[in-house]
């Protein structure tokens, strides 16, 4: 099964898609694809078959998202907590991922046609080296594509991601790139694995569980959360439409909450800059005239240089892994 399953919508699905698209559409949808093992039990097939059909459903869902003009999708494919499962199941999931990333490398034409950029969010160092290398090759091969984005969370939890972002900022301070006073909510967001994406508009969890299980906790504070009882391998186009309708019904309140939050962030940054300038002036450094705008400009420059260095560090890690694989 390829990553983007080819196929057309039926006439009634097309009509429904057009009606939905007349309203505000989510630009980024995140999925907690839950219920693979219950599906396997229900169908009396092997657990691994449940995960394999879970992947097939992901491919089908990506096609529906393209057809609904949803350009970005993030999926929870393997949580750090999942390492605690039976060795046989963890090995099976690693094997499935290897197979699928290898397959992806053979489908570059199709991915290029759709302009799909694949990103993998998580702590890759926790994975077997051959899988790390395959992932890196897939990321490098698609990183220039920019029509739609698939973020695969693998060896991921939100707390691990946030802790990592805090470590990156501490590294920036140690390197003298930023000051501790430059640390802010906005900067932490830029240090997350998800820094290249807007926050999800809609988060969907299947299988009837109503918790986030450490998925995108930072990014979904103003997202529409939809919990559906269907098991992931049985997810349908109509389930997706139902979730989008819930998003549309809540669109105004979501936008309002986001606008308020954005204004608050700007206000906080201004207050923080004012406090730093007041302290500098008290210590006798600098002139009062233009002090605030000078300070803000210099802080923005520091932060920009730090984020460039961070991006370079992350890009080099992926590029090196990918070229190791080419040499192997
Ligand atoms: C949750 O169902 C699903 C997973 C832990 C794995 C999800 C992985 C896939 C759908 C394959 C994706 C692969 C790639 C390469 C992107 P569960 O196992 O928790 O099932 P249960 O809730 O019924 O126990
Ligand atoms: Mg589960």
Brief write-up:
Helix content is 57%, strand content 11%. With 328 residues, it is an alpha/beta fold. The structure holds farnesyl diphosphate and magnesium ion.
Bound molecules: farnesyl diphosphate, magnesium ion
The major beta sheet can be summarized as: 6 strands, parallel
CATH class: Alpha Beta
Helix and strand pattern: HEHHEHHEHEHHEEHHH
Query: Per DSSP, what share of the residues sits in E-state strands of 2 or more residues?
Result: 5-15%
CATH architecture: 3-Layer(aba) Sandwich
When the domains are counted, the total is 1
**Global structural class:** alpha/beta
| Strand numbers in spatial order across the main sheet | 3-4-2-1-5-6
Number of strands: 6
Distance between the termini: 26 Å
* Rg over alpha carbons: 22 Å
Poorly predicted regions: none
Amount of helix: 55-70%
> Mean pLDDT, nearest integer?
95
CATH topology: Undecaprenyl pyrophosphate synthetase
Put simply, the count of helices is: 11
The named CATH superfamily: Decaprenyl diphosphate synthase-like
Coarse shape: globular
Description:
The protein is α/β, with parallel strands linked by helices and 328 residues long. It has one domain: Decaprenyl diphosphate synthase-like (Undecaprenyl pyrophosphate synthetase, 3-Layer(aba) Sandwich). Helices cover 57% and strands 11% of the residues. The chain contains 11 helices and 6 strands. Helix 3 (47-67) packs parallel to helix 4 (87-105) and helix 7 (158-174) packs across helix 8 (185-191). The site of farnesyl diphosphate has 17 residues, from helix 2, helix 3 and helix 4. Farnesyl diphosphate is lined by residues 33-38, 51, 54-55, 58, 77, 82, 96-97, 100, 152, 207.
């Amino acid at each position: 099964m390829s990553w983007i399953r080819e196929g057309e919508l039926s006439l009634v699905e097309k009509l429904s898609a057009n009606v939905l698209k007349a309203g505000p559409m989510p630009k980024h949808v995140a999925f907690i694809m839950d219920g693979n093992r219950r599906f396997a039990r229900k169908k009396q097939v092997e657990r691994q078959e449940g995960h394999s059909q879970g992947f097939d459903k992901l491919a089908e869902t990506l096609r529906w998202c393209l057809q609904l003009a949803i350009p970005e999708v993030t999926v929870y494919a393997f949580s750090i907590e999942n390492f605690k499962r039976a060795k046989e199941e963890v090995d099976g999931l690693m094997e499935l991922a290897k197979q699928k990333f290898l397959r992806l490398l053979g489908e570059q034409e199709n991915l290029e046609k759709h302009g799909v950029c694949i990103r993998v969010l998580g702590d890759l160092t926790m994975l077997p080296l051959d899988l790390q290398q395959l992932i890196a090759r897939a990321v490098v091969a698609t990183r220039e594509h920019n029509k739609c984005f698939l973020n695969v969370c693998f060896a991921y939890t939100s707390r691990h991601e946030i802790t990592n972002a805090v470590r990156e900022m501490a590294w920036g301070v140690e390197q003298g790139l930023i000051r501790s006073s430059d640390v802010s909510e906005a900067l932490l967001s830029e240090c997350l694995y998800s820094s290249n994406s807007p926050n999800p508009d809609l988060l969907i969890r299947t299988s009837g569980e109503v918790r986030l299980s450490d998925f995108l906790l930072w990014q979904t504070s103003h997202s529409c959360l939809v919990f559906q009882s269907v098991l992931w391998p049985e997810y349908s186009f109509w389930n997706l439409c139902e979730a989008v309708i819930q998003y549309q019904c809540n669109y105004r309140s979501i936008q309002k909450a986001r606008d308020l939050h954005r204004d608050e962030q700007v206000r906080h940054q201004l207050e923080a800059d004012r406090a730093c300038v007041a302290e500098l002036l008290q210590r006798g450094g600098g002139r009062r005239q233009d002090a605030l705008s000078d300070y803000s400009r210099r802080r923005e420059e520091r932060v920009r240089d730090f984020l460039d260095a961070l991006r370079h560090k992350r890009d080099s890690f992926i590029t090196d892994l990918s070229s190791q694989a080419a040499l192997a």
